[in-house]
Design a protein that fits this description.
Layout lengths: L1 E4 L4 E8 L1 H5 L3 H22 L4 E4 L2 H12 L1 E7 L4 H16 L3 E5 L21 H13 L42 H14 L4 H4 L12 H5 L5 H11 L4 H22 L21 H9 L5 H13 L4 H14 L4 H11 L7 H10 L14 H8 L4 H6 L9 H5 L5 H9 L10 H13 L3
Parallel strand pairs: 2-3, 4-5
Antiparallel strand pairs: 1-2, 1-4
Helix pairs in contact: 5-10, 10-15, 12-13, 13-15, 14-15
Length: about 450
């Protein structure tokens, strides 16, 4: 947020941590938020000679105090799109304007505003492919370019700079081994990815064992890089090959998710397909807990769940696999997975995460059909053929030697009993075939 002082034509940088922001950021995300703000505060000190002000409290109350204290005449911020943020920002803008403060808001978060992309009937799209075709046309028609802010007159403030957004649980400490938050790291990551890996994205993106995705998602989530910066750099430096277009479509999925967020009542809890309101979900705290801990007895699922706990991130193909397992094989409500991902993902995004879970559950816009149940064994064979990913997180399965045995350790009776006896691994909590049939029977009840 930028506050402008009329008498001196000077600016003040302000970040407000309020109840809305707190609810939209899980435990893992609070580590990234903390580190990102530290970097931003330092950057502003170097570039402008004045630190970013970081305040905790309700947005309107904090703003009113700052405006009065520093005689601010104009406030600027970038728009957000969830029902809660829209409600908050609309109220703040209305009251500040009534009190004589000029307010301007901008789009710094998306390629297009949700209302800029509509179908021929003037409605929002519920199918991704035609949405992205139209959205990309709308974006390209804008002919945007990057303008860097080289100088800005910033006045010094007298605010305390002590704050701490780190979660109480210390499990986040290992994240620094794998991630560097901040704008500089985001831009470097983009440059390296465009140079080295984007041209194989289409074939490599589904392979967790190859680790060839850009990992820009946490940076996007916390505004350290914008989708416009990413797309402009791609269009400037790359030919629109199949791989490049496939990567751009992932930016498109994020845009599509924000359109759904904007037009939905509550994307994280209310299914777009209303018939799923009556779905006969099971309730099992035990199964949910085993899924979270990576103790389901299905190696690909367990390895993926250990990845999220260790790195605060999970490969997208695996998000679909573990999601399908939770929703269809365990028959547990998709909102439970959405909530767990909120707490454990560094890149948790209230639009993309909720839209992804609705897609997995078959209840969202352009969703995967409910009868599509990801088979973790077949997914292992296709996308982790040498079991390299699984063994990275479940090294105790190395004793099984062959990938085919590692994918289904319970079929190797002697070796599996040894693993169980030593408490090195677990028996499957469901039969994949039987649980799939159970899910299809449940679906028939609402069909």
């Amino acid at each position: 947020m930028l506050a402008l002082q009329q008498s001196q034509s000077s600016a003040l940088f302000l970040y407000i941590y309020d109840s809305v922001e707190s609810q939209a950021t899980g435990m893992a995300g609070h580590w990234w938020l903390h580190e990102s703000l530290k970097k931003l505060q330092k950057d502003y000190q170097v570039r402008f000679g004045a630190s970013l002000i970081i305040k905790e409290g309700e947005a309107l109350e904090v703003l009113q105090k700052i405006i009065k204290k520093y005689q601010i005449h104009q406030v600027i911020w970038n728009r957000l799109y969830s029902p809660k943020t829209i409600k908050r920002d609309t109220l703040v803008k209305k009251i500040l304007q009534e009190q004589g403060t000029k307010v301007e808001t901008f789009n710094g978060h998306l390629l297009n505003e949700p209302w800029e992309v509509q179908n021929n009937s003037g409605q929002y799209f519920k199918v991704f492919t035609p949405y992205w075709r139209k959205a990309f046309e709308v974006y390209q028609s804008k002919k945007e370019k990057i303008i860097k802010l080289n100088s800005l007159n910033v006045f010094k403030h007298q605010e305390k700079l002590t704050w701490n957004f780190l979660p109480g649980k210390k499990w986040y400490k290992k994240f620094s081994q794998y991630w560097i938050p901040g704008e500089k790291a985001a831009n470097q990551k983009l440059i390296q990815y465009l140079k080295n890996d984007i041209d194989v994205y289409k074939d490599a993106r589904d392979r967790p064992d190859l680790d060839l995705t850009s990992k820009l998602s946490p940076h996007l989530r916390f505004g350290e890089i914008s989708p416009r910066t990413i797309v402009l750099n791609i269009l400037k430096s790359k030919k629109l090959t199949t791989s490049v277009l496939t990567y751009l479509s992932e930016i498109g999925w994020r845009e599509f998710s924000y359109s759904l967020l904007y037009y939905s009542k509550d994307l994280a809890s209310v299914p777009i397909n209303q018939k799923f309101q009556n779905f006969p979900w099971r309730k099992s705290e035990k199964d949910l807990d085993l899924w979270k801990k990576g103790q389901t007895g299905i190696p690909l699922v367990d390895a993926a769940m250990k990845q999220i706990y260790k790195k605060g991130w999970m490969h997208n193909r695996l998000r679909m696999v573990v999601g399908s397992f939770l929703v269809k094989n365990l028959l547990l409500n998709w909102t439970l997975g959405e909530q767990y991902f909120q707490e454990t993902l560094l890149d948790y995004d209230e639009a993309s995460n909720a839209a992804g879970w609705q897609w997995i559950a078959g209840c969202g816009a352009d969703a995967s059909p409910y009868f599509r149940v990801f088979n973790p064994i077949l997914q292992s064979e296709r996308f982790d053929p040498e079991a390299k990913f699984i063994l990275q997180y479940l090294p105790q399965l190395q004793a099984l030697q062959k990938p085919s045995s590692i994918f289904q350790p319970y079929l190797q009776e002697q070796e599996f009993q040894s693993l169980l006896k030593q408490k090195l691994y677990y028996a499957p909590i469901v039969d994949l075939k039987d649980s799939r049939n159970r899910a299809l029977e449940a679906y028939q009840k609402i069909k």
